[in-house]
Amino acid sequence: MKTHFDTIVIGGGPGGLAAAYRLAEQQSVLVVENDLWGGTCPNRGCDPKKMLYSAVEAIDHQHTLQSSGLVGTSYINWPQLMAFKRQYTTQIPDGTLNGLQSAGIRTVTGTAHFIADHHLRVGETDYTADHFIIATGQTPTLPAIEGRDLLQTSNQFLDLDHLPAKIAFIGAGYIAIELANIAATAGAEVHIIQHNKRILRDFPEAMTTELITSLQNKGVQFHFETTVTKVYETTKGLVLNNAGGFTLTVDAAFAALGRHANIDELNLPAADIATGHHGIQVDEHLVSSNPRVYAIGDVVDRPQPKLTPVAGFEGRYVANQLLQTNSDPIAYPLIPHTVYASPQISQAGVSVQTAQENPDQYRLNQQTTTNWYTFNRIKEPNAIVTTIFDRQTNQLVGAAAYTTIAEELINYLTPLIKNHTTAAELTDTIYNYPSPASDLKYYY
Ligand SMILES: Cc1cc2nc3c(=O)[nH]c(=O)nc-3n(C[C@H](O)[C@H](O)[C@H](O)COP(=O)(O)OP(=O)(O)OC[C@H]3O[C@@H](n4cnc5c(N)ncnc54)[C@H](O)[C@@H]3O)c2cc1C
Ligand SMILES: NC(=O)c1ccc[n+]([C@@H]2O[C@H](COP(=O)([O-])OP(=O)(O)OC[C@H]3O[C@@H](n4cnc5c(N)ncnc54)[C@H](O)[C@@H]3O)[C@@H](O)[C@H]2O)c1
């Protein structure tokens, strides 16, 4: 059995797979995965979350169109919605494995750990390689409090057979907000417990404040400036409390206060691979402190957002470095982000906060677009689109949107920012009318 490879990839998620497929065009490649082939995004992240969100979007539209001739109400049948999600997720691990094997990539299921500089052990077998790519991702973080083991995480939420009647989320980032919105729309009583006053700290505050109201209208209850210090079980359910007098009894509680890098099992000191607070330290070429070893995706200690397209971009970048088709330091394109709530908030490029802090450099154009045809047609209750311009060049440099179509709007605006497209150039393009794209010139 072959045990030496040109490159060994540790982790079969979006980052590792992007690297492996590109490398396999010219190299012998082994991928090691210790859990679900395909990684977080398709098994217990982006994709299953958005399968559940499909029903939420439909209910939201039905709700807002009630006064416009759409009669009747729908509700979510959780077990059926979960079956719909599972139809998708159950195919992922085998499909991923078959895809890799068809591309001539060797695969091993097991936990990889280093035993020396270029030596990796999986189970009883030792493997060597000229290069390694660590793409082991992240795991949900549980708070260091009494009773923490009673808390569940997004992994369990996205695979619940039955929706508990009363749910708490600890944290108010992407995961808490997206899952709380799904649970509340599906009929649960939902509480969000946040240690400060801010939700979704990377998104514009004016928009997150609107989102709080929108979620409250769905029945979500926020407990701000509240830190849970103890969790325990009673016959009535799980009790979350703190010494300041906060007590909440729920049927299930989910920790959503961030994720940490999967590095503990890798025995990184054996290969002299340095780590920081947020994972594996890498240079501008994504090389770790060991020149044979690269790291990509969520496991990396870098400021870029931890998102699937970022992991894939880094995977392809490292493969091209190893195939010597690119030797430049990594240069990221614009990275749009969306929180899939009701409505969505999306942004790309220069942030609203940066623009507000630098008024001499940037001009902000914040428009309430609720009454524009596009938003009125779907009875959007409150839509805001903010565009940001460089004062010197008058070029579009950033955008943020608060609407049910924010994800698509930001997908249109991202290339306009990237290509420095002017308003005049936009009027030379014919888009389908009426559609979100035919509004683009009005954001200038
Ligand atoms: C609930 C949720 C929703 C999300 N929604 C979105 C979204 O809407 N859009 C978006 O862009 N991103 C989203 N993300 C983030 C996205 O899932 C990650 O950014 C992406 O999966 C990172 O890819 P990766 O390859 O770096 O890591 P992962 O996908 O985590 O893959 C790493 C793999 O390595 C394996 N592994 C770990 N240790 C070892 C070891 N020692 N040996 C062998 N294998 C190992 C793991 O089992 C895992 O399969 C979401 C995440 C979560 C949790
Ligand atoms: N739509 C998307 O693209 C999407 C969706 C879900 C997840 N993700 C990715 O997954 C990552 C992890 O998501 P997340 O929501 O777990 O993390 P996050 O970093 O987005 O949010 C963590 C939240 O927990 C709060 N918090 C931290 N410590 C706390 C404590 N002790 N008590 C109470 N609250 C506390 C923070 O203030 C913050 O609100 C995201 O950063 C993102 O990269 C992306």
UniProtKB/TrEMBL annotation:
UniProt keyword list: FAD, Flavoprotein, NAD, Nucleotide-binding, Oxidoreductase
Cofactor(s) needed: FAD
Domain FAD/NAD(P)-binding per the UniProt entry, residue ranges: 5-315
Disulfide bonds listed in the record: C41-C46
Annotated FAD binding sites: K50, D298
GO function terms (MF aspect): nucleotide binding; oxidoreductase activity
Cofactor: how bound: Binds 1 FAD per subunit.
Domain Pyridine nucleotide-disulphide oxidoreductase dimerisation: 335-437
Sites where the protein binds NAD(+): G171, A172, G173, Y174, I175, A176, I177, E178, G258
UniProt EC number: 1.8.1.16
A Pfam cross-reference name: Pyr_redox_dim
Gene3D superfamilies from the UniProt entry: 3.30.390.30, FAD/NAD(P)-binding domain (3.50.50.60)
UniProt cross-references to SUPFAM superfamilies, sorted A to Z: FAD/NAD(P)-binding domain, FAD/NAD-linked reductases, dimerisation (C-terminal) domain
Keyword Ribosomal protein assigned: no
Family the UniProt entry places it in: Belongs to the class-I pyridine nucleotide-disulfide oxidoreductase family.
Name of the protein in question: Glutathione amide reductase
Record lineage: Bacteria, Bacillati, Bacillota, Bacilli, Lactobacillales
Recorded name of the encoding gene: garB
